[in-house]
Design goal:
Helices cover 76% and strands 0% of the residues. By secondary structure, the protein is mostly helical. The protein has one domain. α2 packs parallel to α8 and α2 runs antiparallel to α9. The two termini are 30 Å apart.
Length: 212
């Protein structure tokens, strides 16, 4: 293996420390899980991780440099991502449902949820900046092609992220199943999910470019 065991374990420890702190992706997954259950949350996890793979591949190929060096490119991608999250939130708030119904809201197709998860993460320039800054710290230039090392480390990151994010999805989905039996929650469910999406969008739009 071109990455020594000590470096790999250090990378895994750093990754776990980062993953246990909920970020925008986790909040998105939690909102999905509460809104539509554990399966939808897990599908969102898979979509998010496909988006992660996109950024890892970009980092390996050096494409993330564009976002690092171009303020215009960074701003464009950032606002596209923010606009998409706000769109999801507004659409959720505008759904017409009977607030007194004990039935779960009409579920969205899993393919659509998967696709939305990909879009949410791909249109997050913070992810590009993070992987461009984080992964190379564990690359040994004398141990082989840097691109292959980044891809390997990125794969390890995705595996750990799948485990962490899936845990959040399962817990939130279980809580959501109980909440959906409550009339009070049914009245406020769409407002909770919609507000989370809009809040994430606004946070993305207002975030500075000097933080990862």
């Amino acid at each position: 293996m071109f990455i020594d065991t000590t470096s790999l374990l250090t990378f895994m420890a750093a990754t776990i420390a980062l993953l246990v702190v909920p970020g925008p992706a986790v909040l998105y997954i939690v909102a999905r899980s509460i809104d539509q259950g554990r399966l939808a949350g897990l599908v969102s996890v898979m979509g998010i991780q496909v988006g992660v793979l996109f950024h890892i591949l970009a980092a390996a190929l050096g494409l993330s440099v564009i976002l690092v060096t171009s303020a215009l490119a960074f701003s464009l991608v950032k606002f596209l991502g923010a606009a998409y999250l706000i769109y999801l939130g507004v659409r959720t708030l505008m759904k017409k449902e009977s607030p007194l119904s004990r039935e779960a809201p009409q579920p969205q197709p899993l393919k659509k949820i998967f696709r939305q998860g990909i879009i949410v993460n791909v249109l997050n320039p913070k992810s590009a900046l993070f992987f461009f800054a984080f992964l190379p710290q564990f690359v040994d230039a004398s141990a082989g092609p840097a691109a292959l090392q980044i891809l390997f480390l990125g794969t390890v990151f995705v595996i750990l992220a799948m485990i962490s994010d899936s845990t959040y999805a399962m817990l939130a989905g279980t809580l959501g199943n109980r909440l959906r039996q409550s009339r009070v929650f049914l009245r406020g469910q769409k407002y909770l999910s919609g507000t989370v999406y809009i809040g994430l969008g606004l946070t993305t739009a207002l975030a500075g470019t000097d933080k990862s």
